[in-house]
Write a structure and sequence with these properties.
Blueprint: E1 3-8, H1 16-31, E2 35-40, H2 46-57, H3 63-70, H4 72-87, E3 92-95, H5 97-100, E4 102-104, E5 113-116, H6 119-126, E6 130-134, E7 137-139, E8 145-147, H7 153-163, E9 168-173, E10 194-196, H8 197-205, H9 213-221, E11 226-230, E12 238-241, E13 255-259, E14 262-271, H10 276-286, E15 291-296, E16 303-311, H11 315-329, E17 333-337, E18 340-346, H12 356-366, E19 373-377, E20 380-386, H13 390-400
Parallel strand pairs: 1-2, 1-9, 2-6, 3-6, 9-11, 10-12
Antiparallel strand pairs: 4-5, 7-8, 11-12, 13-18, 14-16, 14-17, 15-16, 18-20, 19-20
Helix pairs in contact: 1-4, 7-9, 8-9, 10-11, 12-13
The structure holds adenosine-5'-diphosphate, aspartic acid and magnesium ion.
Amino acid sequence: MSLIVQKFGGTSVGSIEKIEAVADKVERFRKDGHQLVIVVSAMSGETNRLIGLAQEISASPTLREMDVLVSTGEQVTTALLSMALNKRGIPAKSYNGSQVRILTDDAHTKARIREIDDQRLRGDLDAGYVLVVAGFQGVDENGNITTLGRGGSDTTAVALAAALTADECQIYTDVDGVYTTDPRMVDGARRLDSVTFEEMLEMASMGSKVLQIRAVEFAGKYKVPLRVLHSFQDGPGTLIRVEDETDMETPTIAGIAFTRDEAKLTVLGVPDTPGVAHKILGPIGAANIEVDVIVQNVSIDGSTDFTFTVHRDEMERAKGILDRIAAELNAREVIADDKIAKVSLVGVGMRSHAGVASQMFEALADVAINIQMITTSEIKISVVIDEKFLELAVRSLHSVFELEVEPTGVVVD
Ligand code: ADP
Ligand code: ASP
Ligand code: MG
């Protein structure tokens, strides 16, 4: 008998029919003799609907109340799925985050899990219950409801699997695994049998929303066996695994991630003197705005341009801060641009393969796409481009790097 944590995403519990289908699936696992903890998301669209309601009241509602509001979506699906299981004669119990006691910090809307109390869950599992836990939510030490950031139910599942030392954490969703890129963007995208934690972490950080970044971090840190699978189609899915010394030759590129979530800010004509980068980015950091790609141009006549990206939602706030700094620094102008996209190639094989960057730049040049910014890490190259060329860029790169083709000569075992 094994203990399995299974997470079902929003589309998989998006209607009563689908909740019944999930219950059928859970029933099959139960018949195989497994102990089960099921983590559910809110019905698809529900979290967005709730955020929309809040925005009708206020442009900047209190984050504490936002969490009280958006956490309700998951409470609905836990109860409905438990009822569907009970109807099938399966003892099941719903739990919200504070009932489990998923203790988090108090960073409302992006809280981090600190600790999970597994006592009650273990007691109920031993008593034969299937447990249905609300994803995405926790509670801080003062009893306030918190949420874990968009896509956070993945993290709830992995964290529960770690706390309960489950045999596997299965993320059931509306695609049958992790692909070389978003299969909704590129028809020829290919499902990966496995991907390393490191690659998955980069892909998630660079925009592949199939798994939340923190879920991958958690799984890597606590060695949780993690698999992404289709909710309603059988198949092996994708295993997220540790890099293996027996990988004789890894493919150079595992996948392509992309995001439209960023915006670019440029301060034109800043004096090229020591400390300028700090004067610009210091106040941005102090305002808790995360900065991603940074570029400073070569200076001409002692002045230069300084460009960086932030999350799109933070663009206006960052622009306000920069306007003030620009005046202090005697800079010429501040430009904000939210019509950008970032495309990233990810792969551990890049470590041992030179020339990936130039091949990437050539591929983009061939389709006349201008690169605005570049950033690299050991296993990733990202470029910022005009948003309107995003699809073309992803498709071209997918084809140039032959990602639709199963790599040969790869030993994975
Ligand atoms: P859920 O509601 O089940 O959590 P998500 O919408 O969060 O589902 O994640 C699944 C979606 O992730 C897919 O429908 C797909 O469009 C998108 N996606 C982005 N990049 C990838 C990728 N590399 N592989 C698979 N799916 C991806
Ligand atoms: N319902 C939340 C969201 O839409 C959490 C999740 O689905 O993982 O972001
Ligand atoms: Mg998700």
